[in-house]
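Sorry to interrupt, but I need a hand with the structure work. Could you write out one complete protein record for me, on any chain you like? Could you add the entry underneath, on a fresh line?
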Amino acid sequence: MDPAELALAVEKVVGRHVAAGVDRAEAQDCVQDAVVALLATAGGHRLVSAEAWLTVASRRRLVDHARRARRERAALARVPAPVTDLARDPGETVADRALAQWLAHELAALPLTTRMVCALLTSGMTHRQTAAELGLTVRSVESHVRRARHCLRTSPHREV
């Protein structure tokens, strides 16, 4: 596949997504993912239309992203508000302290950029604000969050 032809197809597809109301950075991220998939699966086969393939593949990625965001919002809506006026059990305080120590240890093992993303998000910034602050794409911020969650879920030291 001719690189100039591919670059032109990428710009057309990104423009098509932006015209449909998708954020430009998000459109570029999804089209870039589609390009990587295209190059990985092409295997020497010549496509009739790289533009058509990129349009369909990137649209599927955009839909997946929207569905994932909708599921996250629905999950957050189901989380009950914290109860703060109940007397705390001293055992809970000790368990919370142990959990905080474990979490601090595990976060220290993450790469610097991932730790910075986590710190900004826990300070109340949105993914978009965090991306702008660190000079990353929103998709990269989401990737760092996914990586941090995965590391915390699969930690071999998890005893709490």
